[in-house]
Amino acid sequence: MAVAIAAARVWRLNRGLSQAALLLLRQPGARGLARSHPPRQQQQFSSLDDKPQFPGASAEFIDKLEFIQPNVISGIPIYRVMDRQGQIINPSEDPHLPKEKVLKLYKSMTLLNTMDRILYESQRQGRISFYMTNYGEEGTHVGSAAALDNTDLVFGQYREAGVLMYRDYPLELFMAQCYGNISDLGKGRQMPVHYGCKERHFVTISSPLATQIPQAARGPGYGIMSIRVDGNDVFAVYNATKEARRRAVAENQPFLIEAMTYRIGHHSTSDDSSAYRSVDEVNYWDKQDHPISRLRHYLLSQGWWDEEQEKAWRKQSRRKVMEAFEQAERKPKPNPNLLFSDVYQEMPAQLRKQQESLARHLQTYGEHYPLDHFDK
Amino acid sequence: MAVVAAAAGWLLRLRAAGAEGHWRRLPGAGLARGFLHPAATVEDAAQRRQVAHFTFQPDPEPREYGQTQKMNLFQSVTSALDNSLAKDPTAVIFGEDVAFGGVFRCTVGLRDKYGKDRVFNTPLCEQGIVGFGIGIAVTGATAIAEIQFADYIFPAFDQIVNEAAKYRYRSGDLFNCGSLTIRSPWGCVGHGALYHSQSPEAFFAHCPGIKVVIPRSPFQAKGLLLSCIEDKNPCIFFEPKILYRAAAEEVPIEPYNIPLSQAEVIQEGSDVTLVAWGTQVHVIREVASMAKEKLGVSCEVIDLRTIIPWDVDTICKSVIKTGRLLISHEAPLTGGFASEISSTVQKLCRIEDYPFYKRGKQTKKSKLLGQAQWLTPVIPALWEAEEECFLNLEAPISRVCGYDTPFPHIFEPFYIPDKWKCYDALRKMINY
């Protein structure tokens, strides 16, 4: 089907695409499209036409042997609202967000950035075991979070903490999870940055990208309405998410937003990305096309922000992060019994036996274990 | 492509049986053709298609759950699903081809009865089926997913092992997908070969956080499936496909539950314990009769029912009583679930683990307690003098399983752990 659509676009451009789109919408879908359509067996079948009769195909026949080059088809265009200097390009696309909301976007991104710097350092100092920064991708997180309702369920991956930040997840809980201390809602079970919050409707992050991969592939190829946006443009992400959400709810069909961005930081504290990419490339994105800078230019041009507020906020956010950080470090870790609970809703008999055997083992060999740091 | 062709093959045969799906109209159609009805006119034994390697033994009519109806295995599954969708408005059923009734007729009539929003097809994508199921279970819906053959569950293995099983644990119980149940046809069927015969329970046994359940009969299937659907943990329910039509018995119309993680002693005995699950239970039942008749041996037959978390106590207590254990499954020997049972049983039954039973010679103490010779309940205080109270197996534990090969086609009669292989292993254990 992907080939059919690609072929249609090469030879028929817009018409082919809309034909393909029409056909895709007519596919009986698992999610039950709102519009009714006849079941496949009853579609008009005219063998008099010389067109291809393959079910679901929208292409035409060709009698010239030609292979499709993979990169010849023009890419899906990238929607944006601001240019790299934070100026609105097309005023009709300006979402005209109120000052408080734009400031919240800005402060969420910068607080996340500050927390990232401090926690990355803390890993380097051996205080936490691991960390992943969000540098460069903050715009995708907060732009989409701002466009959703606070009760919309978000399934995040490990580099989407900005959604939680926007939803006012307390620094104390970010830190608790990274330290795996007694306040961690996740009970110390996962590596740092695997946050989750039921109240804020953010499903706990997991390491595998499994849930994302099938959907991250080309939306049109899967028959899903799709758009590509400039992920470093907070307003573009906001607009696209807002509209996609509205239509997804109204039309009961999925929407795919491909937010183009650039990961400025290393993959994690275990990675040195200079091994596989040029420092110049990284600098370009850091200096010339950063979501935080672009939004700051916008704020400045609106007169909603200035250098003094910037300095004050940097100081304040750093202080808040440091306070939370020091507190988190002092707290004990959870009781080792929490190693065994929540595998199932109820603890199976065999697992209880294993729990008891650890307790007995610690009675004899406890001195070899860091029991002092753990809750009794 | 081969998958589609194979599924299409099943489908075409089913379509031939009529859209309303009355199997009895075309007795030779579908799965039953050939192997349940040996070719009548062919003299040559070599050409005769295989007869079934087991005889289904129905259980006595259940009386405690109200009115019953004769149902085969797929009908009992339909009944369970019908009950579920009736009482739980969030329950939905989805998978490949479930809308028209399913390639094994398990969902016949449900889409008409409950609507297209509750019984719907998915694309051919097992990862997506389970991933989608996890997603809606997280939001609170009761998700009943079907994987068309257990052989095709592997693209969903990551979703099951890394996501479903770990959801509750990794979130500190903030989130869970306990309302997910995955159903899948399982086990040998006479001609299924590599990709329509597998029994993958051992792969999942190694995964804490999920439950794996396998019924031996229609009555068991309905009660166990309802328990899986209502259980607050993600469950995999494997349905022995060879029993879909071959097994029929009286099954209650109303919903009822059979508890998970409880093995069932379906026949008591004193000399050897036989353990199996699914279709193989009927094989070992027959082996028990053969043993009684030919060797005068009394067998205790146990249906494990839940693979994980499994009922260690029932098996161990039985083996303490009999001193001999034979476990049998179609899945390959190496790493098969029999190895887990075998390891656990031979290690357990030390006084710390089971302080209440000891098998051995009658002692003055046990006489005082008035117990049978070979089974002595123990009050710990009386034990000082009898330190060597660990399990005394009369013979090494026996495992009769498939060979360590993929499941072959034409060689199926040689591959499967049939009653002769089980009987032979039992005989050797008795004579050990």
Describe the structure.
The complex is a heterodimer of chains A (376) and B (432). With 376 residues, chain A is mainly α. Chain A has 11 helices and 5 strands. Chain A is globular, with a radius of gyration of 26 Å. The relative contact order of chain B is 0.11. In chain B, strand 6 (211-213), helix 8 and strand 7 form a beta-alpha-beta unit. Residues 5-9, 11-40 and 354-390 of chain B have low confidence and may be disordered. Chain B is built from 15 helices and 16 strands. In chain B, the strands form 4 sheets. A 7-stranded mixed β-sheet of chain B has the order 3-2-4-5-7-6-12, sandwiched between helices.
Structural class of chain B: alpha/beta
Q: State the distance separating the first and last CA atoms of chain A.
A: 59 Å
Overall structural class of chain A, as computed from helix and strand content, comes to mainly alpha
**Uncertain segments of chain A:** 1-41
Give the low-confidence spans of chain B.
5-9, 11-40, 354-390
Mean pLDDT of chain B: 85
Strand line-up in the sheet with most strands of chain A: 1-4-5
What is the distance, rounded to the nearest whole angstrom, between the alpha carbons of the first and last residues of chain B? 51 Å
